[in-house]
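Why does residue order matter? Because the sequence determines the fold. Keep that principle in mind as you read this record.
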Amino acid sequence: MKKLFAIVIALAMLLSAAALAEAADYAGVWYLNAMEAEGESYSPATFGIEMSIELKEDGTAAGTTAMGAENETKDGVWEIDGDHVNVTIDDSTMAMTLEDGALIGESDGQKMVFGREKVEVEVYVPAAPKADAAVEDYAGKWVSAKIGTEGIYMDAAALGLDFTAAIEGTTITLDGILFPSEAIEATFADGALTYAVEDPENALLAGLTAQLLEDGNMSMMVTFSDSMEFILQPAEE
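Structure:
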């Protein structure tokens, strides 16, 4: 009987150690490094978003989302369920699997890839305005590359918001999904090209300000109902 009892105790200890080792595989802080949808992969950091989840050894969890100056943390729980873990935060549960050192889940049809280390992404920052820009410096064809809002810049083509701008003198011809081959007459002053309509409430394009940048690109602030900043690059010959 004593021998059987000792065997039972040993098995219990082994199972407990295995459970602890399994929990250790998942416990810790995980950073959202990539999201995948429809065959495309992108980093949320390029949109100014940071997200992490902390799986604590006591079975509780915490999810943190930061965007700009806003930072929010919500509490939750997690548990091991076979070959995956269920993480529940704010009454929403995500089944996550461990693959090649990454913790992978899915939300709203998007694959979410979390890693133990945060992957640093270079955030685009526009160059300074060119103070001594002359009107002839604007001449030529330009292609939109980035669209910025609240200091966050994204790929214009990926968002379907790319267009071209052909500039000759102070005439700007815009062509793209936002602008159906529309030519406008701007005014040049203080190194910038500007355009504004007298009745902005009844116009699709209410205003525009183009400013050359020190790196050879151009910033174009376009106003519809809201204002959006585009970064344009010289078109390849």
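Helices lie at 2-26.
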